[in-house]
User: Which sequence fits this backbone?
């Protein structure tokens, strides 16, 4: 016969604490004294105790699990944010379940249905552009949710993010300041992605202030992959006139574009300046080092975790403000002399 599994009572006995204290230490560790938490954690490790999640969920009608649906798990910028989201939730007594629709927003509601079958307490989404079915499922199952990365003034209580419009505007303004008038944009795919649409509008607005247009043939929609950046370079060199700079929607695009330029004998930034966005670790390692937009990746994860737990616990919502972005100037952007 197998040995009996350790119980919460065993944990409390070994830790020398009351049963209620042991339970709180495992459920809401931030509400327990550090010394008590340490004793309980040590007892859990010694006994190999694992909570019966199914029984706990039935008793409390909570799973203490938060679901997060991302467009992709390939992009390092999301990986960093997922890490900070998970670490913060763990400290608040919650687990994180991560899923992706692989930049196919029409499948997001299917992903959410599969998640709901397993049971979660709340939902973290990326961006504000979601099918009605997604919002309807959240309503039907009474799931609190936060919208991350994008920030919209009309959804201040739900959004944890920054203005893609402002970030794009600042980058395009810098490019113009450096003397560029022939400007191409590798934006990402605009359908179902308000972040891409804001990026295009912000770039157009910055150019308009100095009487420039963003030529339609130089607005290139490509998936957020290295190959997408490579394809952008192939498209712009196929025109009779070359731009002097390619503004990329992500650093992944930009690194792919730099690679394609290298393969074709084009020098960056002498023949073509290239900029990115996100400031992933690779941006400061690639040659030439990438001019990009630093975004508050870690802070988005931390704030989203705290906000979603507050919503679960029915704490009064506070209005968020847009997080800051910073343009980081490196070697991939050339200053033109006219």
Assistant:
């Amino acid at each position: 016969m197998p040995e009996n599994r350790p119980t919460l009572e065993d944990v409390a006995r070994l830790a020398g604490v009351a049963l209620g204290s042991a339970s709180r230490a495992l459920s809401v560790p931030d509400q327990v004294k550090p010394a008590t938490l340490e004793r309980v954690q040590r007892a859990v490790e010694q006994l190999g105790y694992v909570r019966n999640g199914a029984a706990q969920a039935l008793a409390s009608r909570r799973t203490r699990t938060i679901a997060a649906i991302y467009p992709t798990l390939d992009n390092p910028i999301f990986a960093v944010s997922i890490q900070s989201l998970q670490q913060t939730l763990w400290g608040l007594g919650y687990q994180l379940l991560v899923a992706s629709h692989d930049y196919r927003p029409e499948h997001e509601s299917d992903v959410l249905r599969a998640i709901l079958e397993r049971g979660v307490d709340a939902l973290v989404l990326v961006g504000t552009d979601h099918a009605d079915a997604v919002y309807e499922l959240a309503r039907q199952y009474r799931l609190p949710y936060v919208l991350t990365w994008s920030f919209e003034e009309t959804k201040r209580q739900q959004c944890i993010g920054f203005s893609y419009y402002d970030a794009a505007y600042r980058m395009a303004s810098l490019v113009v300041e450096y003397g560029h008038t022939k400007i191409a944009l590798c934006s990402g795919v605009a359908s179902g992605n308000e972040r891409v649409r804001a990026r295009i509008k912000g770039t157009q607005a910055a150019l308009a202030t100095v009487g420039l247009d963003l030529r339609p043939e130089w607005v290139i929609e490509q998936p957020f992959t290295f190959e997408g950046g490579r394809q952008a370079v192939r498209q712009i060199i196929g025109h009779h006139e070359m731009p002097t700079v390619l503004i990329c929607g992500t650093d992944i695009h930009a690194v792919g574009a730099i690679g394609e330029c290298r393969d074709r004998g084009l020098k960056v930034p002498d023949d073509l300046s290239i900029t990115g966005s996100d400031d992933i670790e690779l941006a400061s390692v690639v040659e030439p080092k990438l001019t990009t937009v630093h975004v508050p990746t870690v802070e988005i994860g931390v704030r989203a975790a705290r906000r979603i737990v507050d919503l679960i616990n029915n704490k009064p919502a506070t209005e968020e403000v847009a997080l800051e972005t910073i343009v980081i100037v490196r070697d991939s952007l050339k200053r033109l002399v006219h």
Q: What stands out?
A: The first helix runs from residue 8 to 15. The chain has three domains: 8-51, 60-162+296-324, 164-294. DSSP finds twelve helices and eleven strands in the chain.
